[in-house]
């Protein structure tokens, strides 16, 4: 690996921006590229357009020190890291349009000798697709030095950091890198060894792609097991939280926690990439997705049933983030639950309490209001806990003693 390489990071989101800041902090000359002019302007001003502990400090230090700048178009560089979104379409098929656009943006800049790393979580075969797309645009280059043409190295290095702990995990976690060729794998190892304190595990690109999908599917299947237990326990009149706590005393049992569904941009998405790649064999993975996706509607049914005892129910929904102590509302089951409550119980007044945001998400504007914790809980007939933010778990004892309120605690935070 070059001592101070020029690294272009395409996509300054939850993964690209932290990666750019960490690389700059380790001596690389980093250019962040984003199609959103507001993101570019924010980064160049040393600001971060979303909440992530310690990130803003790292970005502003990198920008002030001259190691990081942002722009709309990729310049020539030694390394290109693609960290753009890979959502799925309505039919659960992967949408690779952002990856395609990133390839098209960097293809013109290549001269040979560069490393192109795909970090976006991707369906199996995407790294090969990236190389094929760029080689079609640039027939003067090759992936394996064949025909004497200058070689470009392609690798996949899936990000595996946990939102809320990104700056720590980016450096501390072990990192899987998979090359399209062994040489590409070794180039990628050098890049990640420059800032990762964890082990760098080198494999081929296809296995690296699958490793990321398998990790998140593993978690999804295990959360589905917990959510399925919550359905069974409600049916049988058993406290699912007590049951799980008891079962987890077994030395080889570690059941996860039920909730209102699985959110975020990864665990609710990535398993579909495996299903899309091998529908016939991915039976458990598909069923887990279906079990977890059924949970928000189940919670709404509980609230609808509770609301029947009030003519004009007042409902306080605590939390709309996709999980505890973050401001990230992407694919949040809580947003879905609140939206469906307002549709199914039109006579209800609904207040949302979300200490991590200043405004309601667009999907809820005009349907619910945003309130503070104490007055919303005091006002409500029904309190629905959707996210186990620390701010909510702390008030559990007071809420348990409030007479006359129906409490639906989807996270078991107030037991
Ligand atoms: N959840 C439950 N019950 C649990 C655990 C989680 O309902 O017991 C829910 C959460 O509330 C949330 C969702 O699952 O809605 C996902 O949360 P999470 O904390 O499990 O995971 P993410 O999406 O924040 O991050 C995951 C991580 N992957 C794994 O733990 C295998 C992270 O390491 C990945 O980097 C990240 O996905 C990603 O970017 O792919």
Characteristics of this structure?
415 residues, alpha/beta, five-stranded parallel sheet, 15 helices, 41% helix, binds ligand SAJ
Content of β-strand: 5-15%
Helical fraction equals 40-55%
Mean pLDDT over the full residue set: 95
Distance between the first and last residues' Cα: 53 Å
A few lines on this structure:
With 415 residues, the protein is of the alpha/beta class. It has helices at 16-25, 37-44, 55-64, 97-107, 126-137, 166-172, 182-193, 205-236, 240-247, 270-277, 283-307, 333-344, 373-379, 390-393, 396-400; strands at residues 6-10, 29-33, 68-71, 79-82, 115-118, 153-156, 175-179, 200-204, 314-318, 349-353, 369-370, 382-385, 406-409.
Description:
This protein is α/β, with parallel strands linked by helices. It contains 15 helices and 13 strands. The protein has helices spanning 16-25, 37-44, 55-64, 97-107, 126-137, 166-172, 182-193, 205-236, 240-247, 270-277, 283-307, 333-344, 373-379, 390-393, 396-400, and strands at residues 6-10, 29-33, 68-71, 79-82, 115-118, 153-156, 175-179, 200-204, 314-318, 349-353, 369-370, 382-385, 406-409. The strands form two sheets. The protein has an eight-stranded mixed β-sheet with strand order 3-2-1-4-5-6-7-8, sandwiched between helices. A five-stranded parallel β-sheet has the order 11-10-9-12-13, with helices on both faces. Helix 1 (16-25) links the parallel strand 1 and strand 2. Helix 10 crosses helix 11. It is elongated. The structure holds ligand SAJ. Ligand SAJ binds next to helix 8.
């Amino acid at each position: 690996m070059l001592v101070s390489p020029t690294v272009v990071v395409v996509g300054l989101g939850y993964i690209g921006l932290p990666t750019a800041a960490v690389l700059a902090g380790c001596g690389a000359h980093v250019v962040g590229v984003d199609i959103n002019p507001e993101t570019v302007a924010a980064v160049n001003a040393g600001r971060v357009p979303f909440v992530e502990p310690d990130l803003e400090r790292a970005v502003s230090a990198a920008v002030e020190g001259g190691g990081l700048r942002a722009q709309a178009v990729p310049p020539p560089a030694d390394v290109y890291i693609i960290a753009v979104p890979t959502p799925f379409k309505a039919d659960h098929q992967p949408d690779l349009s952002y990856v395609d656009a990133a390839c098209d943006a960097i293809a013109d800049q290549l001269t040979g000798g560069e490393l192109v790393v795909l970090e976006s979580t991707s369906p199996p075969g995407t790294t090969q697709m990236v190389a094929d797309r760029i080689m079609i645009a640039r027939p003067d280059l090759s992936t394996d030095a064949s025909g004497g043409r200058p070689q470009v190295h392609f690798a996949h290095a899936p990000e595996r950091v946990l939102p809320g702990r990104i700056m720590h995990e980016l450096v501390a976690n072990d990192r899987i890198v998979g090359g399209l060729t062994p040489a590409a794998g070794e180039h990628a190892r050098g890049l990640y060894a420059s800032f990762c304190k964890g082990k760098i595990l080198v494999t081929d690109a296809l296995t690296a792609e699958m490793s990321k999908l398998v990790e998140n599917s593993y978690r999804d299947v295990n959360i589905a097991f917990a959510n399925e237990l919550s359905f069974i326990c409600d049916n049988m009149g058993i406290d699912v939280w007590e049951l799980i706590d008891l079962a987890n005393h077994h030395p080889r049992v570690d059941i996860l926690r039920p909730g209102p569904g699985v959110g975020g941009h990864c665990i609710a998405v990535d398993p579909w990439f495996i299903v899309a790649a091998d529908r016939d064999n991915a039976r458990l993975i598909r069923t887990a997705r279906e079990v977890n996706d059924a949970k928000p509607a189940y919670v709404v049914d509980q609230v609808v049933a509770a609301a029947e005892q009030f003519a004009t129910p007042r409902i306080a929904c605590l939390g709309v983030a996709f999980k505890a102590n973050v401001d990230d509302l992407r694919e949040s089951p809580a947003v879905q639950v609140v939206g469906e409550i307002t549709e199914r119980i039109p006579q209800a007044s609904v207040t949302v309490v979300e200490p991590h945001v200043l405004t309601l998400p667009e999907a809820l504007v005009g349907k619910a209001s945003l309130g503070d914790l104490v007055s919303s809980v005091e006002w409500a007939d029904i309190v629905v806990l959707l996210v186990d933010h620390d701010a909510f778990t702390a008030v559990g004892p007071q809420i348990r003693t409030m007479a006359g309120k129906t409490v639906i605690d989807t996270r078991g935070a107030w037991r």
